[in-house]
Every structure is written in C-alpha cells, then in structure tokens.
Design goal:
Blueprint (H helix, E strand, L loop, with lengths): L4 E6 L5 H12 L2 E4 H9 L3 H8 L1 H17 L4 E4 L8 H10 L1 E6 L2 H8 L12 H11 L9 E4 L5 H14 L1
Parallel strand pairs: 1-3, 1-4, 2-3, 4-5
Helix pairs in contact: 1-8, 2-4, 3-4, 4-5, 6-7
The structure holds shikimate-3-phosphate (S3P).
Amino acid sequence: MPEQTIILVGFMGTGKSTVAELLAERLDLRKIDLDAAIEADQGCSIPELFSGKGEAFFRQVETDVLKGTLDEGGGIVVATGGGAVLAEANRAAMLNAGLVVALTASLETILSRVQNDPNRPLLQGNAAESVPKLMESRRHAYDFAHQHIDTSDKSVEEIVELIVQRMKEK
Ligand code: S3P
C-alpha cells in the first residue's frame, strides 16, 4: 500500500495546524505545515512576504511549495493555509495526492481564535469586519474535500479520532 498522505484544508482558525500535529503523531506520519515551509523557502515571515511582494506572489510560492511537498511522496499530514484551496491546480493536486479533510468552525469560534493575531495579513485591522466577508467569499471553497469536520465544539483529540474512524470506514 502506498504511504498515506492526509491534507488538512479550511479557513483560518479552524485548527488545521494543531490537528495536523496530533493526527501525525497518532498515525506515525510526518507533519508538514505549508506556511512554515513557505517561510523557510522564502527566508521571511508570511506577513513580510505579503507586505514585501504582495498576495499574488505569495499565492505562486504557495502553489510551488504545495506541489513540491506533495511530489515528495506520502507518509505525511499537511496543514495548508486557508487560501491554498483557491487555485484549481492546488485543489487538483491535493485530491490527486491523498485524503483531503476540511475543518470548519463557526464565525464566533474563528473570531475568538484569530482576533488580534499579527501573523495573518488578510485579517489586519478589524477582524470582526474582515472575517465574515472573507468567509462568505470562500463559502464553497472547501466543498471539494473528502471529509468535513466542524471543530467548533470538539477537542483536538476528538477531531483526530473522528478522522481516523472515518478513514477506517472507507
Ligand atoms: C491565508 C491563511 C494563512 C496564510 C496566509 C493566507 C488565507 O494560513 O496562509 O496568511 O488566505 O486564508 P492559516 O489558515 O494557517 O492562518
């Protein structure tokens, strides 16, 4: 059997990085955080990349790093950034590489998790205004995933067990 690849997608603040960490541990896979891989590739932080080179450049790097990560082969859990699903090529690459799990959360939960976070350039200023708008514009962006899990009222352990359980049922 080929080594497993699990890709977590979802809006900012849905818990992708935290869930990826525990899921990787649980399944004895390697965790890769796409934003961290982009920062390592570019030698600067995500906010620096946005302010220095702009969002379009960031998206291109995101696509390249995602492709490079998935091309390396399986045995990984990948936590993607919230906008990694926007490019059709990225969605196709993810579906082709393995199991895509979308994490969701209520607006209130997301706001409580992301408010005042300086590391999210798209939410600078008034997050209470920008989050609902961005969520609305991405309402169907995560529909393509194989699994969907609302993380609002679940512990990280519960979410991981749910993913593993559903994988067994397949
Ligand atoms: C983004 C989400 C961020 C990061 C960048 C853009 C987005 O990742 O990739 O700030 O467009 O939703 P997280 O979802 O991990 O915050």
